[in-house]
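Bug #77: duplicate submission created two jobs. Keeping one. Sequence:
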Amino acid sequence: MAEVSLDDAAELLTSQIKRIGVGEPVTVVAHSAAGPVLTRVAEQTPELVAHAVYLSAYMPASDGPAAAYTRRPEAADDQVPALLRDDRAKTGALRLDLATDDARRCRFGRHQGGGRG
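Kept job's structure:
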């Protein structure tokens, strides 16, 4: 995974859209980190994307890395970093530990303060 770039992923998505849509524009739904891939495809080949739907996905501004959003003040309550395991630079992938108390709070919408998320 470490060798797969945003451009590689966008190229694959573009080829899938062309095959599925048979040259006609299609609606593409992106979830999570697939948001930047959809953004890249929609910018490069807008004639292939009828609608871009971001379902709990990063929707970065053009040429902005999605990871930059995790460092903004609005992301201060983000609970996902506590679930990350391993060193992404070494493994080339994000690995989550979903059996922790932190994961239970994320799944059931409970913040550390006990409120609803």
